[in-house]
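Notes continue from the previous slide.

Worked example: a multi-chain complex. Inputs as given:
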Amino acid sequence: MAGREGPRPGGRSARVQASVHAAVQALMTRMERAAITIPAIAAEAGVTPSTIYRRWGDIQELLADVAVERLKPDMVPIDTGNGGNDLLAWAEQYAEEMSSKPGREMIRDVLASQDGSGAYQCCNFTRQQIEVITARAQLRGEGFPDVDTVMDRVVSPIMYRILFGEAPDAAHVARLVAGAMELVSPARASVDEPA
Amino acid sequence: MAGREGPRPGGRSARVQASVHAAVQALMTRMERAAITIPAIAAEAGVTPSTIYRRWGDIQELLADVAVERLKPDMVPIDTGNGGNDLLAWAEQYAEEMSSKPGREMIRDVLASQDGSGAYQCCNFTRQQIEVITARAQLRGEGFPDVDTVMDRVVSPIMYRILFGEAPDAAHVARLVAGAMELVSPARASVDEPA
């Protein structure tokens, strides 16, 4: 049973997963990531190393699994009363969190995994946040770009620059959001969009 | 002396680098990437393992270095006689190459390196290609978006989808290119742009 698929809550398997995840996070606060080994994690979690090898295969897959868990959004996007401003507030926070040292390490761990499912899940977490903003805009009767447009015009350039160069500054994020919002025909948009 | 900075051509250091790079590439054709070790590379290259450790530190940095070399573009973007079509042809090829198995592995190797300079160099290779297309469009007197716009609207979404989901299809790439070209004011654009 792969940890990432989510074992039955409260079961033995779930308790092992929770304690191994907690052990990884505890070690990360005390030592350099590159120095963390499976025996050290096992000792911290109170399980045998073979439990970890059996379940995750290697440390890269375990680190990816922990990173995916940590990248799961823990809040609903802020409701500013306007879709364009909701998207701007969300994008600013996303750029800030992902470009932080822990953010970059989590992304790196997810992408280093041979199994691409973690990266796919992270992308889905992001899509779900955009869908919340979209649904609210639609309820208010506002025009709002579709999720793929927001992924292409806002999320992708933020992530590309974090991975391959420098994190975009606030002015750049605002331009990206404006570039996504410009696709909404003015006839459908019932509220102001950010400049 | 770091391999990535480029040793004096023809010098001893350059010959070591070339033979180690060739050894990595030869091993990659014969075995799974995950099974490649520094001692195996050293044996193939005819150098001692300590030569490799001294120069690259660990296998991850060596693989990143080899990947950056391989990601260096070996041709000038095709000249179709029109900036929009040049960009479309280039973007289709970029999406195809980067989403191939070797392409994905090279990107993964570059991003897995602790040293971010490889990722930065890859981004620069891409910018240089766009600059060639831009310069040709300007010589022809065509309007053409600036390099940052092309990076944000075309390159970033292609790379994001390759890393976090599925590679974009040809129709999607064409939409991305059209989305970058739409920023060129019609007054400045002297030729047709792709629909």
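Summary box: The radius of gyration of chain B is 19 Å. Chain B touches chain A through 23 residues (CB under 8 Å).
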